[in-house]
Every structure is written in structure tokens, then in C-alpha cells.
Write a structure and sequence with these properties.
By secondary structure, the protein is an all-alpha fold. The protein has 14 helices and two strands, in the order αααααααααββααααα. It has a two-stranded antiparallel sheet.
């Protein structure tokens, strides 16, 4: 194997927790609220089906191909030529998604905190820090996430407590006043984040306690959905029917906090939460890109690809959108179906084909299990 490191199922779970919520937590209430209105807190519950399905698909594929990820076992399932073609498409998808993530990160920081900072400075700084983590390997990535995990979650818990005086619990009413369809339409926007469980494929081969992979995979989905529900409830309790009018509702929520005219203006907490989450997410996707590229080319070391791919990701940060409005439009419309088809539908087809080949006693599948 190219990567010699090992991580625990618990570390896998918290990596996925931070990876999914990193870009979701700030804009989630606005995205779901456009369709669901006061029922936006229900949307993550319906969307959780996508998270559980994605986790289940890749855990099942990992059971069939324990030491491989989607770039590798695609060749076993659909043949070498088709598998290579699909692997190339997935590598482009991963590169494209990280371009979106770093652009989204840079736009938030520039709009909210550092308006005079050039985009390339924001891109280069986050990619450089992530490159050092990726170069260190899967164990460095897991330990960094484990260290930053409390810093990522504590500001959110503090936010709940500090906003209690501003909450109007009647804003949630009437529950499903217009039926269940608005909250289901809101779930369509939410599911695109849960589709990021696609990246669990690149973590599963390195687990040292494989017997716990299903438990921590499902627990991670549950924790993510619970966090999403709480975030949406806080937003609706404070903002009511105007939640969807804010670009970053969580940032606006923090501005409401004022205790004795002394403890206020704590937007830096949200900035810290965002930067830590984005660092983990960019590092995970970056790692998948570097590792997958080396595996696709069939070389024995991914580290020579780290810096060139980092430079390419900076370029993609500029290429994915010409401005913030174009980025927001793509993320709220086209990206939902694009990522759903690539991260859920195609892996599900691969799993179905793998099951069929197993039923027919495919020798290549048996050989992969023995290895």
C-alpha cells in the first residue's frame, strides 16, 4: 500500500463529522429555509437518508475490497479501461470540489472579515497548511482533526447557551403548516453536504479496528444530522421567517449576543470555527486527490504529487467561479444534482455490480478479498 499509516474508526468518525459540517454549518439555515421556511429543522432529518445510504454503500464496498478505495476497486468491478476512465472522472470531481471549498472559504473571510485581502492570498495560505498535513499522511491528518475537534465544537455549544435569551420558541409554529413537501424540498439542498461521505472511501482502507467501521460511520451521520437540526432550530428561534434572507445566518446570530453590554462582538469565534473546519475539509479532499492520483498512475508514493496538486487547486479556486454570485448560484442549483449523481448514484451502481459479480463467483473479487 502507498500509505502505511493507520487510524481508528473513532478518528474516521470525527474526520467525517468536521468534513461535512465545515461548509454546511454557516449557510445551512439559509439553504434549507428558502424552501422549508419554519420547517427547515426537519430538512436534515429527511436528508439523513442520503448520509446513511452513502456510508452504507462505501462500508459495503470496503467489506468486498478491504484495502482499496473507489479509485482502485472501480477497475476490479467494471474492468481496467472503464475503471481507469471512471477514476479519472472522480479525480477531476475531487479537484473541482476542493476548488469550490477553498473559493467558498476565501469569499466568506473576505466578505465578513478581511475585505481588502486578495483571493490568491486566501487560497495559497489554506492550501499550503493543508499540504503539510497531507504530506504527513493519514495519521497526521487524523491526529490534527482529533486535536482541533473540541475547538470546532465548543464555540457551537457556547453559541446555544448565549443565544437562549433571544430565542422565540413559537417561531417554529405551525409545524408542517403547508404539509411535508416544503421540508422535503429543503432536504434536497441539505443532502449535497451529506454526500461528502463519499470521502469515507479513502479512510476505510486504513482502519485498524475494522469491526467498528459501521458503528462509527452511522454514529458520525447521526451526530452530523443532530448538529444540523440544532443549528436550524437556533436560527428559526432567533430570526423566524427571515432566516433565509441571510447569506451566513450563523454569523448574524453571533451579532445578537450581548451580555451586560460587555460580552459581545464575538464574531472571531465563528471565524475560528470556519477556519478549523475548512482546514480539515480541504486536507481530507486534498489527501484523497493526492493518494488517488498516485494510485491511478500506479506509482508507490503520493508525496511527489502534493505540491503540484496544491498549485492546481489554487488555480481551480479561481476557475470554478468568476465571482461570489456565480459561486452561490452553482452551489444552490447545479451542484446538487452533479454531486448526487457522482457521489451517490455511481457508487451505488458499482456496489450492485460488485454484488452481482460476487453471486457469479467472480475470481477477481475473490482475489481482492484474499489480498
Amino acid at each position: 500500500m502507498i500509505e502505511k499509516g493507520k487510524i481508528s474508526s473513532f478518528q474516521m468518525g470525527i474526520i467525517m463529522y468536521v468534513t461535512v459540517l465545515a461548509t454546511a454549518i454557516l449557510v445551512l439555515p439559509s439553504a434549507a429555509g428558502k424552501s422549508a421556511k419554519q420547517d427547515l429543522w426537519l430538512s436534515p432529518i429527511w436528508a439523513s437518508l442520503i448520509g446513511f445510504l452513502s456510508s452504507w454503500i462505501f462500508i459495503k464496498l470496503n467489506k468486498l475490497y478491504p484495502r482499496e478505495n473507489i479509485i482502485q476497486y472501480s477497475e476490479h468491478i467494471i474492468g481496467k479501461f472503464a475503471g481507469k476512465a471512471l477514476g479519472c472522472i472522480y479525480l477531476f470531481l475531487i479537484l473541482f470540489e476542493n476548488g469550490l471549498v477553498i473559493r467558498d472559504y476565501a469569499e466568506f473571510i473576505i466578505i465578513s472579515f478581511l475585505p481588502k485581502t486578495p483571493l490568491y492570498v486566501m487560497f495559497s495560505s489554506i492550501v499550503l497548511v493543508s499540504a503539510l498535513t497531507v504530506y504527513g499522511g493519514i495519521e497526521v491528518l487524523a491526529r490534527a482533526t482529533q486535536i482541533f475537534f473540541p475547538i470546532f465544537t465548543l464555540p457551537f455549544l457556547l453559541l446555544i447557551v448565549l443565544l437562549l435569551p433571544d430565542m422565540e420558541f413559537h417561531n417554529i409554529l405551525p409545524i408542517m403548516g403547508n404539509g411535508v413537501l416544503p421540508s422535503i424540498r429543503g432536504a434536497i439542498d441539505v443532502q449535497s453536504w451529506l454526500g461528502d461521505f463519499f470521502y469515507i472511501s479513502f479512510l476505510l482502507p486504513f482502519l485498524q479496528d475494522r469491526e467498528n467501521r459501521s458503528k462509527w460511520g452511522m454514529f458520525s451521520v447521526t451526530a452530523i444530522v443532530l448538529t444540523m437540526v440544532i443549528t436550524n432550530l437556533i436560527a428559526i428561534f432567533v430570526f423566524g421567517g427571515i432566516t433565509q434572507n441571510y447569506i451566513y445566518p450563523l454569523l448574524n446570530l453571533v451579532k445578537y449576543i450581548s451580555i451586560a453590554s460587555f460580552f459581545e462582538h464575538i464574531e472571531a469565534l465563528i471565524m475560528a470555527l470556519w477556519v478549523i473546519g475548512i482546514f480539515v475539509k480541504v486536507s481530507v479532499i486534498y489527501y484523497a486527490l493526492a493518494l488517488g492520483t498516485a494510485q491511478w498512475i500506479n506509482v508507490y508514493d503520493y508525496k511527489p504529487f502534493v505540491l503540484p496538486l496544491g498549485f492546481l487547486q489554487v488555480l481551480f479556486g479561481f476557475w470554478v467561479a468568476s465571482n461570489f454570485q456565480e459561486l452561490a448560484s452553482f452551489l444552490s442549483k447545479s451542484s446538487i444534482f452533479f454531486f448526487f449523481s457522482m457521489q451517490i448514484v455511481l457508487p451505488l451502481f458499482l456496489l450492485l455490480i460488485a454484488f452481482m459479480k460476487r453471486k457469479l463467483g467472480d475470481k477477481d473479487l475473490t482475489h481482492s478479498n484474499i489480498r
